[in-house]
Amino acid sequence: MDNLSSFWHWWIIVLTLGCIGLTWLLLKLNQVKTQSSDDQTTGHEYDGIQEYDNPLPSWWYWMFILTIVFSLAYLALYPGLGNFKGYLNWTSVGQWEDEQKHAAAEYAPIFERYGAMSFDELKADPEALKTGQRLFANNCSLCHGSAAAGTVGFPNLTDNDWLYGDTPEAIETSILKGRKGAMMAWGAIIGEQGVKESAAYVSSLSGGNADAALVAKGKEIFATNCFACHGADGKGNQMIGAPDLTNGVWLYGGTLAKIEESIRNGRNGEMPAHEELLGKNKVHVLAAYVSSLSEPKQ
Amino acid sequence: MSQKIPLKTVDPNASSKSTIEDSVELNLYAKQEKIYTREIQGFFQRIRVFTGWPLLLGYFLMPLLSWQGQQLILFDLPARKFHIFGYTFWPQDFFLLGWLLIIAAFALFFFTNWLGRVWCGYTCPQTVWTSIFMWMEQLAEGSRNQRMKLDKQPWSVNKLLKKGFKHFLWLSFGLLTGLAFIGYFVPLTQLIPDILSFQASSAAIFWMLFFSAATYVNAGWMREQVCKYMCPYARFQSAMFDKDTLIVSYDTERGESRGSRKKKADPRVLGLGDCVDCSVCVQVCPTGIDIRDGLQYECITCAHCIDACDEVMDKMNYPRGLISYTTLHEQEGGTTKILRPRLIGYGIMMLLMVGAFVYAIATRIPLELDIIRDRNQLFGYTSSGQISNTYSLKIMNMDQEPHSYRVHIEGNEQLQYVGKQEVSLASGEYLTLPIQLQIDPVELTRSNINVQFHIEAIDDSDIHAEAESRFIGPTPMPGASGTSR
Questions:
Q1: Cβ A55–B24 below 8 Å, yes or no?
Q2: CB of A174 within 8 A of CB of A164?
Q3: What confidence score (pLDDT) does residue B18 get?
């Protein structure tokens, strides 16, 4: 892939090599023969002004020649002349990939060891948990927050409410394969009045104050529409990630307005799959770490 | 301006011959003239032995000695830890290096103003290493005259052997120097077996060979060229000179006019000064100057010429000191004034800086706390409706001992700290502690609250650190407790 048009390609080549060539010429032209004198002057005089002859040591001159040779060698080996790639085929991406390969080779044994350990063993190993914490900070904290407490739309991982199950295995699957939490939009199906009624009922499930008449109607709507995923008792279904509506933990907000919004427009949550990005061993440590976060509060 | 330049008639046949003979290739560059220094004994050379050996020994022993199970000086670059005399310093302590360099600068000003280029003549590594290399040269090739003769000889087995031996000595010492230098960065107990078993990292080998070659070239070939053309100190030290600065000088009054004479002859009768023009002072000079030409920038005040001249004066039964350490004031017939405002000023500055440095080291708290607020979201809501902010506390135990610490926030009682408050860190450990601060929206008085984090070692309340951050929330609801109506 050439990133310079041929004009700029040649422009750079001519300028660079031209400069080096002119430097050479300058050196050549400076080797002059002049009248010498024995009083350490160059021998020429103008208006009574004489010039001292204080030559630099010749090794200095050779060092300068060396820099010219170096620059030519550099330009031959590394990219520098327009689109010319250099004979070493060096690229910054290549160097980065090389460093990654080295890092992967260096740290692979550590993660292989972690990968072979059970979740209980990992959770008892403070070093493994620290590694998990660092992995979390680098890969998960952007959405779930550094303290894993989540925010609106991104689950809190430190409480005991789990959409897909609280076992470390379920957490590991969530990280490896990702999750898609889809709540369909009911506004058009049950109508605005239906949204209000069902929201009132859902709110009442976790002890929210709602109009009793609305709650009664909402219960009917719930029993015909919502129970399929959230269960007849509203306890949710961890097989498909349907949230428990009775425990007061709300991913998208628990006010009546927020619940109505969720019902009316539906919700789409996505947890991306990390298997390819991190690999099984790192995810294993990560799952142990995430699982450990909610334990002390039990 | 209107004057004409006088016309010169050039007769090519008449004058060209002589000009060609006179002219030489006048490059901008001159070939280095090899300096053959003559060996000399004397008072100042003994002083140099006393300064040179401890410095050399210190250089080679420092990476070999260890104290309290730790190498005396080890700059562990990959781990970013600098172990110096039992202390461990971190990149965060880099300002201490700043103090150290300021101290070094004022020390240079002070001693240069007082004693002239004493650093150059006695303690500079360039001088110390060059002395060793000259001694090796003498060992392999003999005295000054023998060396000059040897260089003029055509190549022979004898010459090859002598030169080869010299370069072998130089390269060996260079290699030792390079090895010791790397020893400041990689423990030698680990490096030497690695090298012998061909397992050392290519970087370590490269830098070892690099510094070996640099030592060989500097002390073997470059020598005075470094002082004359490369060293910045050599040039700017002249700015610290005044008329009371110690310099090496030739007493022109007493010496001139110079000339050889018989030992018994009375120079006054011959109309001569005390200088017998033996040129020994020139032969011993490592920078190749004639001190009798006056003070020159090349002079590193090594006092070779003083010792040389004193020896000659002794032989001639003249008083010593024709070339001596003196000052311009003394030369002019006055007396040297040691305590002068400039020197006192330099001295006070130097002592102040040393004091500040010692104070900074003594009161250094080996604990670091940094707060990084989560930036991806200004604030969040918990499912119970609390407003939350997330922080990563970066805690670093820079002490030699492990410690347990307690974290809390000061002021802001409404803010609730959620997360671990007690952590244990091993010596040198760096821990990230993610925590949350939460507040009831009703309690929120401002959308931006300053928060002081405070961390303290449980076993030692002197070890503590503070850091400030902010708690950010939505614009407070009207009717919140803090909003007055």
A1: no
A2: yes
A3: 39
Tracing tokens 């024995």 back to the chain, one arrives at: A38
A254 neighbors A152 (Cβ within 8 angstroms): no
Give residue ranges of A with CB < 8 Å to any B CB: 30-36, 42, 53, 55-61, 130, 133-134, 137, 141-143, 145-152, 156, 159, 248-251, 253-254
Angle (nearest 5°) at CA B101 between B98 and B102: 85
Please state, in angstroms and rounded to a whole number, the distance separating the CA atoms of residues B339 and B242. Answer: 12
Residue B483 has pLDDT above 60, yes or no: no
> pLDDT tens-digit profile of B292-338?
998 898 999 999 999 999 999 999 999 999 999 999 999 888 888 88
Q: What is the per-residue pLDDT across A200-229, written as a single tens digit (0 to 9) for each?
A: 999 999 887 888 899 999 999 999 999 999
Q: Which two tokens stand for residue B180?
A: 């010791």
Q: How far apart are CA B73 and CA B61, in angstroms?
A: 10
Query: Please, which residues bridge with residue B249 across strands?
Result: B324
Report the gap between the CA of B132 and the closest CA in chain A (Å). 23
pLDDT at B208 over 80: yes
Q: Give the residue from B63, B103, B53, B61 showing the smallest Cα distance to B83.
A: B63
Q: What is the pLDDT of residue A295?
A: 67
Residue B225 contacts A, CB cutoff 8 Å: yes
B/e letters for B223-255, b = 16+ CB within 10 Å, e = fewer, are bbbbbbeebeebeebeebbeebbbbbbbbeeeb
Q: Of B1, B20, B29, B222, which to mutate for an interface test with A (greatest number of A Cβ within 10 Å)? A: B29
β-pairing, B448-457 vs B430-439, is: unpaired
Average pLDDT, chain A: 89
Q: Which of A236, A250, A238 is nearest to A154 (CA)?
A: A250
Sole residue written with tokens 């390079």: B178
Burial of B219 (0-12, 13-18, 19+ CB in 10 A): buried
* Closest Cβ opposite residue B23 in set A35, A133, A134: A35
3-state SS assignment for residue B456: strand
Please write the tens of the pLDDT for every residue from B325-382. Answer: 999 999 888 888 889 999 999 999 999 999 999 999 888 898 999 999 988 788 888 8
- Name the helix (H) or strand (E) containing B281: helix B280-283
From residue A249, alpha-carbon distances to A157, A163, A207, A211, B287 in Å are: 12, 11, 12, 21, 84
B459 DSSP assignment: S
Instruction: Please report the ipTM that was assigned to this predicted complex.
Output: 0.74
The Cα–Cα gap between B379 and B389 comes to: 5
**End-to-end Cα separation, chain A, in angstroms:** 58
Which distant-in-sequence residues (6+ apart) come within 8 Å of B144 by Cβ?
Answer: B36, B37, B38, B39, B283
Instruction: For B405-419, write each residue's pLDDT tens digit.
Output: 999 998 788 899 998
B209: left (phi over 0), alpha (psi -120 to 50) or beta: alpha
| Length of chain A measured in residues | 298
Q: Which residue has the higher pLDDT, B133 or A61?
A: B133
Residue B269 structure tokens: 């009768």
| Phi and psi torsions of B116, nearest 5° | 70, -145
Dihedrals φ, ψ of B273, to 5°? -85, -165
Q: How many residues appear in chain B?
A: 485
Looking at residue A37, what is its pLDDT? Answer: 58
Asked whether the beta carbons of A120 and A167 are under 8 A apart, the reply is: no
- Shortest CB distance from A59 goes to which of B32, B390, B418? B32
- CA distances (Å), A58 to each of B26, B27, B148, in order? 12, 9, 22
Determine whether the interchain pair A145/B380 forms a contact, defined as Cβ–Cβ distance below 8 Å.
yes
